[in-house]
Amino acid sequence: MRPLAAIALVAIAVMLGPRDSQTLAADNACADAAEAALRPCLLDRIEGLLGHPEIRVRDPADASAAWYRLAVLASEAGDVARVSRIVPRIGDPRKRRSGLAVLAATQARAGDAHAAVSILNRLLGDSDAHARLPAMPDGDIITVLVALRDPSQTRRYFQILPVAARPEALVALTEALVRGGALDEAERLVADQGDAAPARRVQGAWPLVAMLIDAGRHDTARRLAGLLPQADRDRLEAHIALRIDMDGRTDEARRILGRLLAVPRPDDHVRLAGAIFAVRRGDWNNVRDRFPATIGDEALGELFWMELVDRGRPDLALDLATGVLRIEDRPAALARLARLIVSHPDHRLRARLFDAADQAMDERIKRGAMQAGILRHQPAAIEDLERAHMEAGDLDKARDIARRVEDALKDGAGHMPRIVSAEIVPRVWQPVMEAMIENGERDEVLALASDAPLRAEAARRALARQGLTGDAIELAVRNAPDRLALATYLLDIAGTLPASGKETR
Known about the structure:
By secondary structure, the protein is mostly helical. It is built from 31 helices and no strands.
């Protein structure tokens, strides 16, 4: 292990107070371990910090949240024993219930279905949440069911649910399965429970439908159409049309899109799908006619820009983004385009696009200084523009963007800027700091972290992600005002390391 990591671990051990001989031996073994074993050592330290009496008395709510995060990290490593030890220490009843779900999921993945079902029975029986919130699926129970993947337990859950709660539960559980890569189980669930869920609108169902279409599971996506508002049903068909067009079923795709676009005021999402279809045909007049003033679906928008650039028309992309797209959507679109044409041979076009992207983001940052919420929904666009400049070799420009976002929020008045700063500032600084570390500017990163807590948060994550785990731990120890803060910082660092550990520089 690097000396710095060992020193930092010893410093944490000192904060834990008097140690018995057995624990001190474990401390020494941890400090001497290979870097690849650092994550379990960090979890040991965090567990010791959170178990300190001072934390239990002064910060019960925050301590519960930290204990829960620790349980999740231990679960990712498959450490059933650690999760079993942690869950009873979560003080908040709601968080403890979620911790029990994490424990059951860990047991299920470890092959102990009997123990997992025993906890599932407790979760089903210890609350009247369904009666009180009939439209809200129970996330804790869904966590267990996804890990179990037992159709009999899933059917039992739906039988217990009030009828009014079934549509949302079906969408939430299916989406969790799809995100976990269990597409076959997701299809079986929809086939099994689709008719049991009443055909009424479910807010938030669209991402699941889009994922199923992207995975080629069109029939399953269509079975969920009854849960969608009419606009989303049209989007579903438009997405399917684009997908089957890629499979060579062009005439069928043309018929679907023609029908959807024939109505007096087609949905913007449908118009964008029609524009993508026209791009693939080289029908530039129809591209201009169909392109909407707003892009409501980020993934579909990204596909549109990629198709235009891939077919040699970044000039048309720039014209549409600056001349047709509404002002609110321009920063994200232009930042994405800047990344797509970083290596484009037309230097003039590239310069025009970067200038337009910088100008749109400058305006957004200035408005954000007056109304912080404007920047709250822009972190992905800011990151895209930063990365575009870094990929073009201009690290200074990316650093300037991060600094101006931070300054805009710092200059804002009231409570909102502080909330948004905590969300945005670490996120926009982290990729810049990672690039600085790759560029040999580790000391500069540490200097940036020395006088700004939010920048220090970004620095800890960037250092850990770049393999400088010892530096990240040392920075956490130096910055932490108390044990709970240190535990929280270490949770962030541990979360950047794979569950199995990794070699670090």
